[in-house]
Design brief:
Layout lengths: L2 E6 L7 H15 L3 E6 L21 H12 L2 E7 L7 H10 L6 E3 L6 E3 L5 E8 L3 H8 L2 H12 L6 E7 L6 H18 L1
Parallel strand pairs: 1-2, 1-3, 3-6, 6-7
Antiparallel strand pairs: 4-5
Helix pairs in contact: 1-6
């Protein structure tokens, strides 16, 4: 039985992202997986990494709980919208506060290399767009995916990281949204 953690980066509980996270959760649970979910917008924490890496900030209880869930999970599912080419600010703050040296990776002394502390985990990014995914990729270089996939998850040892693009959201019909929800449900069934 697989241990899956879903991390929803959209702050609005009425969003398609929230529904996608719920659909994925339903499929994974039906497959027999153990599933936890974090709605970043529900957490109580300061998203500002006030001192950078110079001085460690104490982790708030919600971040301690989130870190425990991340460490226990075998598969991480990140659900988020693309806003201005990137992820929502609160989601970025969540990553800044948790994916720290000594927690997610460890710098080697007198070296440009580092140790990856989140190995033996896989991930799926489900991201919503208001433009075609091909346009986001070729015109903008898919910055949110590159940041989360390469600069965060793979940097810390999570591999492979697969991506599912959902969109165009702003012009979608009820029928199209239902298809996307079913797709997220199917992904949950498959990964569980």
């Amino acid at each position: 039985m697989k241990n899956i953690l879903i991390i929803n980066g959209h702050p609005n509980k009425e969003s398609l992202n929230f529904a996608l996270a719920t659909a994925y959760q339903k499929g994974a649970l039906e497959s027999g997986a153990t599933v936890s979910i974090i709605h970043i917008g529900d957490l109580n924490f300061d998203p500002n990494l006030a001192y950078g890496y110079q001085k460690r900030m104490e982790l708030e209880p919600d971040l301690v709980d989130s870190l425990t869930k991340i460490r226990q999970a075998e598969h991480l599912v990140w659900v988020h919208p693309v806003w201005w080419g990137g992820m929502p600010a609160l989601m970025k703050g969540f990553i800044d506060r948790l994916f720290l040296p000594g927690i997610a990776f460890k710098y080697r002394e007198n070296s440009v290399w580092w140790d990856k502390l989140l190995t033996r985990k896989t991930a799926r990014i489900i991201t919503t767009l208001d433009q075609p995914s091909w346009y986001y990729r070729f015109m903008f270089g898919r910055p949110s995916v590159n940041q989360l996939r390469r600069s965060v998850l793979e940097f810390c040892g999570v591999k492979p990281v697969k991506v599912t693009y959902v969109g165009i959201i702003k012009k979608s019909t009820v029928e199209q949204r239902e298809k996307w929800l079913y797709q997220a449900y199917q992904l949950g069934l498959k990964h569980g």
